Amino acid sequence: MHKNIVAEAGLIAHGRGEAFDYLLGERTPNFAIRQETLAVILLLEAKKPVISVNGNVAVLCPKELVALSKELGAPLEINLFYRTKERELAIKKVLDDAGADQVLGIDPDMQETIPELSHLRRIVDSRGIAQSDCVFVPLEDGDRSMALRNLGKNIVTVDLNPLSRTSLTATVSITNNITRSITEMIEIAKELKNSSPDQIKMLRGTLENKKLLREALEFIVFRLKKLASEESALEI
Ligand code: ATP
Ligand code: MG
Questions:
Q1: Where are the beta strands (DSSP E) in 1-127?
Q2: Which residue's alpha carbon is at the smallest distance from atom 31 of ligand 1?
Q3: Cβ proximity of 183 and 189 under 8 Å
């Protein structure tokens, strides 16, 4: 935040995430690997996938984002809720330092607006999110996810809160910490690239977003009940 990469509100959002991560046990549960698999299938199938980057995401896992971008052939686009020129440049530097080839979203000549949102939150890159059929928007705000969904785009998110409006709106929601999920998605993308179209089709048939989101809630309920009932469970 002091380097102007993350907005003040970003710190509060981070805290919400951490609270939910305690409920998961700060580890990737099995259902999240299946959510990540469905997400990667969608992103690999997309004609123009784009990865949206905000301040929190840039701080938490810049190198992993660059690696995923290369693995999926999906450009990185800076997309901010609290947009200032300073923050745009600070995030661009983080991504450049992490090895990004191209960073979209901050060239004023390439900006256009999407409907339904207030002024600064509307801006998207005409080479990126504007044209994209599948946008990966980790840690995104609910209004913007809905606006993108209303434009007919597939939305993939990572959001530790399975009940956030973004989680409920997305085509695929990953209920996991982004610090774990991007690395896992890179591995999954590598594996899927070695699979046949038939294998991927079969795998896809077993994965359904709303069902997996329900599994996330069930996992949390089950885990908390177990903690509450076992005497040894509350020992560190
Ligand atoms: P919504 O607008 O979607 O209803 P919100 O207002 O809580 O939800 P935003 O601040 O708009 O959410 O977006 C931040 C979201 O990112 C929160 O749901 C938060 O739980 C989640 N989050 C924060 N840190 C992480 C993290 N490290 N990994 C995954 N998700 C996270
Ligand atoms: Mg919100």
A1: 49-53, 76-78, 103-104, 111-113, 123-125
A2: 17
A3: no
What gap in Å lies between CA 70 and CA 52, rounded to an integer? 14
- pTM summary value: 0.96
User: What number does the ligand 1 atom closest to the CA of 143 have?
Assistant: 2
Beta bridge partners of 104: 77
Q: What is the pLDDT of residues 48-86, one digit of tens each?
A: 999 999 999 999 999 999 999 999 999 999 999 888 999
Domain range for 133 is 8-222
How many Å lie between the centroid of ligand 2 and the Cα of residue 105? 21
* Count of domains forming the chain: 1
Distance between Cα 80 and ligand 1 center (Å): 14
Q: Which atom of ligand 1 is nearest to the CA of 179?
A: 27
